[in-house]
Amino acid sequence: MKDFKNLILLACISLTTQSIFGYTLKEGNVTALVGPFIYKSNFATTETGGNSPYLGDVGLVVQGDVSDHSALEIGLFHMNKIYLRTSGTQSITEQTQLFHVTMGYRYYFNPYLSLATAFYSAYSMADPQILHNDFAPGAELDTSARDKTEYGFDFSLETELWSQQNVAVIADARYALSVTNKANEKGDHYGLFLAVKFLVQEKPVVHRDPPKP
């Protein structure tokens, strides 16, 4: 959790180095963000060696402006997520490949800083792998890595690092809070999404001819 706080601090510090080209929201505009996603499941290394390293993957977010200070967004992140489940002093960590899909609302405090809340669903794409297991063979607990679907809420703090005309570089600190964790399971994760943001579609301007005399 300390590492996630450091990500938030980094995003806030970056505000002091902003360019003068902050993105201006406009109802009807559609933008896309694509880039690497560095993430970690939110649990510490266990006494017997179960751990959650930082992993890297890729993310895609599409935002549609609904006003001059807010947008709706849909995100898609490919992950190899790790889950921890414990019973007493024993634990098991499992990893699965999944797609993490978010749908939510983003509010812009200014052109450089925004906050988003989203609902997420995650879909397993492969059989899980056991990374660490303290239990006897056949007696291990199952984790959410074996489930087909996971649900929860995503929280995002996004800041613009640099921009030029219709292209920007974004740092997005994210936290995913699972609501489908099993008993004594750690299934939350946090990460940093470093993305290039670009304008996909601009709201067309309708020009009306002046009335004829």
Number of domains: 1
Shape: elongated
If helices are DSSP runs of H or I spanning 4 or more residues, what is the number of helices? Answer: 1
CATH architecture: Beta Barrel
The average pLDDT score comes to 90
For the record, give the distance between the C-alpha atoms at the N and C termini, rounded to a whole number: 70 Å
> What is the CATH fold-level name?
Porin
Low-confidence stretches: 13-20
Q: Total number of β-strand segments?
A: 10
Main beta sheet, described? 8 strands, antiparallel, barrel
**Strand line-up in the sheet with most strands:** 1-2-3-4-5-7-8-10
Structural class: mainly beta
Helical content stands at under 10%
What portion of residues belong to β-strands?
over 45%
The CATH C-level name is Mainly Beta
Give helix and strand order, one letter per element, not per position. Answer: HEEEEEEEEEE
If you compute it from the alpha carbons, what radius of gyration comes out, rounded to the nearest whole angstrom?
20 Å
List keywords for this structure.
single chain, 213 residues, Porin, 6% helix, mainly beta
Can you describe what's shown?
The chain has about 210 residues and is mostly beta strands. The protein has one domain (about 1-20, about 25-200): Porin (Beta Barrel), CATH 2.40.160. It is built from 1 helix and 10 strands, in the order αββββββββββ. The protein has one helix spanning about 1-15; strands at about 30-40, 55-65, 70-85, 90-110, 115-125, 130-135, 150-165, 165-180, 185, 190-200. Strands 1-2-3-4-5-7-8-10 form an 8-stranded antiparallel barrel. The N and C termini lie far apart (about 70 Å).
